[in-house]
């Protein structure tokens, strides 16, 4: 007979094994400082482990994991009183550094993505993060609570921003040709 | 587009992806011990004032002000308790942690807004009865027949103006923060209605 505690521990281990990498990326997006990020990541894991006591498969495991993780990130952001952020529509004003051919490597792109995401307001930052994690519009709507229309509109904007800002990298990559 | 997604998903990860459950439970215990820097400043300010008042009361200085000083001491303790109660990071109830992000965000903002918007009640008001009482005793003790009365009255006026300015400034800080939260709440409502 499996006890509730054992079931919670098993669920946590399964979820962490499957989504651990995504949780690290999420923590990096919420917190630029290394020490605070470690702390945030621990908070996310702890909350995830605790939350499985209330998980009754009311949504998919993936949705649950992302909801819990983003909610921990949101709580921290409110505590830090970081409320002056911008929407996707105003993202043109966010300076993410130059994208010259010399700097067009993966690490530079990732760093620029983090700069961009950290300055976006909720739920635009979550939509971009979930989109980068390869989630579709329906799944993003389930995690964020946005309507399908609102998600579609944001994904369209996210794609435009990513194409515009990260085009140069693709152009510089050997073997990638643009018309 | 899959190019940038690939770069994103293939970034190097040095951190632990699965954590030890024993470590997590220890982390849970330490959670309530962590306070924000702003809260620590408020606690330090309260502690200094509590110590000053205890010292003044125990050494019998300014006996005429004894009763309002006791009240002021209680006000500092009450406010420190309220800061702990309202602003200490606490875990969300289990049933809330798996909510959709927008719903959770709104609830968290409402909770914090409630504390900030009512700051006049729990942060400012407790200090006013002992403060006014002290001013009244001060005024009563001015002997207008003596030549030094004018300067005493001037000092009293300065204390009144200083008190009003200080507490207006504190009220303004809380109000500004409450207004910013209200705007954020309105924005979240608009996004949810989209």
How would you describe this structure to a colleague?
Chain A is an all-alpha fold. Chain A is 66% helix and 0% strand. In chain A, helix 5 packs across helix 7. Chain B has nine helices and no strands. The mean pLDDT of chain B is 87. At the A-B interface, helix 1, helix 2, helix 3, helix 4 and helix 5 of A face helix 1, helix 2, helix 5, helix 6 and helix 9 of B.
- The helix content of chain A, as a percent range, equals 55-70%
Name the overall outline of chain A: globular
Number of domains of chain A: 2
How many DSSP helices of chain B?
9
> Gap between N and C termini of chain B, in Å?
26 Å
Largest interface: A-B, 68 and 49 residues
Could you give the distance between the termini of chain A? 62 Å
* Count of helix runs of chain A: 7
Radius of gyration of chain A: 18 Å
Q: Please indicate the percent range of residues of chain B in DSSP E strands (runs of 2 or more).
A: under 5%
Mean pLDDT of chain A: 84
Q: Describe the global form of chain B.
A: elongated
Q: What's the order of the H and E elements of chain A?
A: HHHHHHH
Oligomer: heterodimer
The largest sheet of chain B is:
none
The overall average pLDDT of chain B, rounded, is 87
Strand content of chain A: under 5%
Q: How much helix is in the residues of chain B? A: over 70%
Task: Give keywords.
heterodimer, A: Rna Polymerase Sigma Factor, Chain: A, 2 domains, B: 0% strand
In short:
Chain A has 179 residues and is mainly α.
Architecture blueprint of SSEs:
The complex is a heterodimer of chains A (179) and B (194).
Chain A: H1 4-30, H2 34-51, H3 61-79, H4 106-118, H5 124-132, H6 137-144, H7 148-172
Helix pairs in contact in A: 1-2, 1-3, 2-3, 3-6, 5-7, 6-7
Chain B: H1 2-9, H2 21-31, H3 37-58, H4 66-87, H5 94-97, H6 101-117, H7 119-124, H8 128-140, H9 149-193
